């Protein structure tokens, strides 16, 4: 069903709003941002805390993922400070079947210089606030069980542990649990 231009404009306006009480703002990602998005993502690979990728990814390999994000349904936002990309947040489809269209997985990745400074809290708050505007009623976070800071962040915002998948990921020979956190927002 096509959206009205006023609905689309409201979605874009909400996705470019400044984050409260910070010097950061967020906006919809553009193709020119993909290199910085990938660099931030790749900076987390070696820690084995955040992603199940075991080697850095390329910009080309992430192009299809980038193209799947649309402002009206599954936005991809970047945060900036003084013109520098400091992080990104995406809504992604859950399971790829039509009946799950009201459910989205959230991903939040921050530049290493901006971790632990409240930017993740602001992005998560904005994602929760914005979800009903894109017809999302349920948000999910897929977080490794040993990633305590991310688990605590989501739990502070009322996400509950909906699933514990023990030992489903093997990183450097160590089996890791995946925790699925969920929250109804609409």
- Estimated radius of gyration: 16 Å
Strand order across the largest sheet: 1-2-3-4-5-7-6
List unreliable stretches of 5+ residues: 1-20
Q: What is the 3D form?
A: globular
Tally of contiguous helical segments: 5
| Average pLDDT rating | 89
Total number of strands = 7
How many angstroms does the end-to-end distance come to?
20 Å
Largest sheet: 7 strands, mixed
Topology pattern, helix = H, strand = E: HEHHEEEHEHEE
Q: Per DSSP, what share of the residues sits in E-state strands of 2 or more residues?
A: 25-35%
User: Helix/strand-derived class?
Assistant: alpha+beta
Helix content: 25-40%
What does it look like?
Strand 4, helix 4 and strand 5 form a beta-alpha-beta unit. The chain starts with a helix and ends with a strand. It is globular, with a radius of gyration of 16 Å. It is built from five helices and seven strands. It is of the alpha+beta class and 186 residues long. A seven-stranded mixed sheet has the order 1-2-3-4-5-7-6, with helices on both faces.
